[in-house]
Amino acid sequence: MNTNTPTGKEDERSDTTEGIGLGRLLIGAFILIALPVVILFGSSGRLDWGMAWVYVGLTTAFSLWSRIIMQWKNPELIAERGKFSQKEGIKPWDKVLMPLGIIVAIVMLIVSGLDKRFEWSPNLPLLLHITAFVITALGYSFGTWAILVNRFFSPVVRIQRDRGHTVVSSGPYCLIRHPGYAGTVVTSLATPLLLGSLWALIPAALAVCLLIIRTALEDKTLQEEFKGYHDYATGVRYRLLPGVW
Fold this sequence. Notes:
The chain has eight helices and no strands. By secondary structure, it is an all-alpha fold. The chain is globular.
């Protein structure tokens, strides 16, 4: 028993909070898995779409894997991500950009499904599908690596003073300052090609633009408000793409 909480009440409250967070996180994982199924097969009007099943399998695998990693490596992150909307200090602009990014991602999947239904795009070579699959998997892997090393990997932009927020500089963070966003950029651009939709590259490009804006605003916030981040940024020069920006 923790000597600072002899009655055990603090531990009980902590376990309850983590349990609530885990429940919400599992619900979120289910939604992330079910939503692409509903959108892709609903908009395409067919179930015999091989690449859509490949995409669903890929996203399901990484969604479950990232939750397993959080439970194993950063269990306190479960409560943070499970109740992020109730946290204090979320930047006003992120309350707009974060849900807007989700909406654009959904539009990208809808366009992909409609493209499949009405055959707007020409048939893409199998090699391009395979390449897009590999790139998408690499993007998800890079983002999962960031979750593995960063116990402050919140879905919203806020300085987590309530959790003893410190600068993370290991793993992918020694290469670029925002590896989670970088992984999302990669998957956003590769997913339309995996699904065989050239038209879906339009909302994908919009999603990338939103991510770049969000990265710039978050980086500015961290530079101004987060102790130690300026020194870290001096050593790790690039935000999303090494040698470019």
